[in-house]
Specification:
Elements (H helix, E strand, L loop, with lengths): L24 H20 L6 H8 L3 H4 L6 H25 L5 H18 L1 H10 L5 H25 L5 H17 L9 H17 L4
Length: 212
């Protein structure tokens, strides 16, 4: 009698790359988990949010979440990494356009940064309030990326103010970045465009004003 060959189960049966948490559903589910986690981190804080809380909000069980992340520390790290990628993409034109005068490049840089921060308020709130909870393996590369980005701001500030002390320029940039980030901490009644204009004008003025 011929030996009967057992056919493989289709991927849609729940195993393999097309099953729950994998394949085509994987990236979408991962984004849902990130979004849910960021909302909870903002509302309850990192330590006040459990894996089960994140899973329930995202519509998955806690154990299923581990198919995508090793734990909530990696969830937070990935969210901040995504924020860094979006910052880099939004601000690259201002930093790369050598035809722009330094003042114009600085204003464009601030406008881009304000826009991406407002559009990703949960990420920025998590970065400011919760990044200190990250393990060193996550925190150190993110910190290096942030400092590298601020160095680009400082370069433009010094191009506008060639006689400024570099440490003063670094302090100005830190003040500017935190001024923008503070917009993400509390909701505003202004519509987005009005808020972008207001913040861009104020922060740019801070960076363009000569030091006494």
């Amino acid at each position: 009698m011929a030996k009967r060959v057992k056919q493989a189960e289709p991927a849609s049966a729940g195993r393999g790359p097309e099953g729950p948490g994998g394949g085509r559903r994987g990236p979408a589910r991962r984004r849902e988990i990130l979004s849910a986690a960021l909302r909870l981190f903002r509302e309850r804080g990192f330590h006040g949010t459990s894996i089960d809380d994140i899973g329930a909000t995202a519509g998955v069980t806690g154990p299923a979440l581990y198919r995508h992340f090793s734990g909530k520390g990696e969830v937070l790290a990935e969210a901040i990494r995504e924020g860094s990628r979006q910052i880099a993409a939004a601000t690259r034109p201002a930093l790369a356009d050598e035809g722009l005068a330094p003042q114009d490049a600085l204003e464009q840089l601030v406008r881009s940064y304000v826009g991406v921060a407002l559009d990703n308020a949960d990420i920025y709130a998590a970065y400011v309030l919760e990044a200190r909870h990250l393990a060193d393996e996550f925190r150190r590369p993110l910190r290096r990326s942030e400092l590298g980005h601020r160095d680009e701001w400082r370069r433009l500030v010094l191009a506008v103010h060639p006689d400024m002390d570099p440490e003063q320029a670094r302090t100005l940039v830190t003040m500017a970045v935190f001024a923008v980030t503070s917009l993400c901490m509390e909701p505003s009644r202004l519509d987005r465009e009005a808020l972008v204009e207001l913040a861009t004008g104020r922060v740019t003025a801070l960076l363009l004003t000569p030091m006494a």
